[in-house]
Amino acid sequence: MKVLEMVKNGESVFFTGSAGTGKSYLLKQIISVLPPVSTFPTASTGSAACHIGGTTLHAFAGIGSGAAPLDQCLSLASRPHKAAQWRKCRCLIIDEISMVDADYFDKLDAVAKSVRKSKKPFGGIQLVLCGDFLQLPPVAKEGEKKYCFQAKCWKWCVTRSVELTEIYRQNDKQFIALLQNIRIGRCPPAVTKLLQATKHQPIESGGIKATRLYTHTADVEATNRKQLGVLKGEVHKFPAHDSDPGLSSQLDNLCPVTASLQLKQGAQVMLAKNIDVSRGLVNGARGVVIKFDTSNRGLPVVRFTSGLEMTVSPEKFLVKMGGGVMAVRRQLPLRLAWAISVHKSQGMTLDCVEISLGRAFEDGQAYVALSRARSLKTMRVTDFQPSCVRAHPQVLDFYRFLRRMRHNYISPVS
Ligand SMILES: Nc1ncnc2c1ncn2[C@@H]1O[C@H](COP(=O)(O)OP(=O)(O)OP(=O)(O)O)[C@@H](O)[C@H]1O
């Protein structure tokens, strides 16, 4: 049985798979067939949530960070508008589940049971959980991080676990095999050699410079600001139009585009939304601003890696909840692309990427960074050392356990 049918049959499903196996693609299909009024698409991060037209799991749950004692979480979730939402929800979708903390997930289970007055797992809400635990982990509070599958309620809440096995992002077999090694924390000498050989590889063309992937956010902001400053020429400012200015700070958190975008001719940019998949205009597609169209509101004209030149117009970024639109930001679907953080890149496909892993500090971070590239020929790793490749032993155990439970483990699926 395919995942979509399992979901239609009301099962609570966790589906996983390597980077690029189409988890997000499948999730969007699932969302499109479920009744919008009672389906709540959420994700652990704002940009992943916006990508599926939902909100963050934290915004849905209404229990703050979840760090407060359970009693306080229960009273927060019992506020009328939050309780109404919990009661209305029949299917809760959580994307990027790898970044959801186990204790937080257990609290959500307790809150759902209490608000919905039901002893069933998650108060009877169907769960659709999606993600790869070998990618980015939850942010650790004090001490050891606890993955969502380590939550006490996980085994009661998740009735089916499915792995997607076909990789769509890359088609080079050697690169796929390399990534599969990195994913499980292995870095044999042949892998090190292949990655180190990319160090001086020319990947730039048509004025499009490589996007540098950093492990630390501060480096990203500094690099983009500095590089824009270095460009000669006039600054063109593009303010966003928000449906409700009172929600602008929430939109800043949830949308992949900023309230104010500054561009110059020569600015390195990337798309922040799928515009036209058939023409390669997808989230993460790289380009350079070649001019501003004076006959068309001064909008930027971007040349993409494919050679396509296009005037980029504002798009709507919707943040939805329970079928209703909560807020809308109208903004150019562009962001500066000299640099981006590994964290923000999770879920993206990047055309031309330079990766710095010298300061990688997280399990799965090197895998997320490297697996954004389409091929070894379109990436450059500047400072690769095998020590940056890490997979958490408990995650590896969890995946071994899933594989042993063959009856619950279906593969391949689409
Ligand atoms: N069934 C499919 N047929 C054709 N192309 C697909 C299919 N599924 C995914 N793709 C394409 O493969 C690429 C990767 O897909 P997607 O982002 O959904 O993978 P993912 O598993 O969510 O990756 P990640 O774990 O890195 O977020 C995208 O360009 C997507 O359009």
TrEMBL record:
Cofactors, names only: Mg(2+)
PANTHER family, per the entry: ATP-DEPENDENT DNA HELICASE (PTHR47642), ATP-DEPENDENT DNA HELICASE PIF1 (PTHR47642:SF7)
Keyword Repressor annotated: no
Species classification: Eukaryota, Metazoa, Porifera, Demospongiae, Heteroscleromorpha
Catalytic activity of the protein: ATP + H2O = ADP + phosphate + H(+)
GO BP terms: DNA recombination; DNA repair; telomere maintenance
Family label: Belongs to the helicase family.
Pfam family, one: Pif1_2B_dom
Annotated GO CC locations: mitochondrion; nucleus
Domain of life: Eukaryota
Keywords of this entry: ATP-binding, DNA damage, DNA recombination, DNA repair, DNA-binding, Helicase, Hydrolase, Isomerase, Mitochondrion, Nucleotide-binding, Nucleus
CDD domains: DEXSc_Pif1_like, SF1_C_RecD
The protein's name in its UniProt record: ATP-dependent DNA helicase
Subcellular location: Mitochondrion; Nucleus
DNA helicase Pif1-like DEAD-box helicase domain location: 7-188
Alphabetical list of InterPro entries matching this protein: DNA_helicase_pif1-like_DEAD, P-loop_NTPase, Pif1-like_2B_dom, PIF1_helicase
Occurrences of domain DNA helicase Pif1-like 2B (ranges): 249-292
EC number: 5.6.2.3
Subunit annotation: Monomer. Interacts with telomerase.
GO molecular function: 5'-3' DNA helicase activity; ATP binding; DNA binding; hydrolase activity
